[in-house]
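We now fix the convention by which a protein and its fold are recorded. The integers have meaning only within a learned vocabulary of local backbone shapes. A record is reproduced here so that you can trace the correspondence yourselves:
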Amino acid sequence: VEKALERHRLASENQQLRDRLETRTRFERMVGESEPMQQVYHLVEMVAGSDVTVLLTGESGTGKELVARAIHHKSHRADGSFITLNCGALPETLFESELFGYERGAFTGALTTKAGRFELAHGGTLLLDEIGELSLRSQVDFLRVLEAKEFRRLGGTKLVTVDARIIAATNRNLAEAVKQGTFREDLF
């Protein structure tokens, strides 16, 4: 009887540990079992099932990229690429070439054709990190592409059609930025 009870206890403990591991691996490297984290996991599950554009907000270091990756890996786009572009780290002059790519000869030093991040994310997800740092001009360019799902590479004439889910992240209060005129309301 003691051996049977011990075996039952060990099997139960084993199952609990497996359940905990499953919960942790379901959400990439996100950890936590608190009620707020359970709400985050629930929201990730809900959003991942649709193909809507997502805006993640929060202070720096709160795990916005981890949440974006979890959404991607739980979505029907999980087999596609997960591409990131840190908008805050790019000067305005490089944003277009990084996002849309360029054709050979489009500018000095463009010796080959290069696909942009948006094109690389075709069939997958594009994370625009620190989207609140985009210049107004870059916001206009991005909004046009977001609406049309097509663009031209720098120096190109051919339209490139892309099917990518957009997830944007920022530590800025974009509603306040709209009021201040530093972020476009239609993009927000």
Helices lie at 2-26, 35-48, 64-74, 92-100, 117-120, 136-148, 174-180. The first strand starts at residue 54 and ends at 57. The chain has a mean pLDDT of 89.
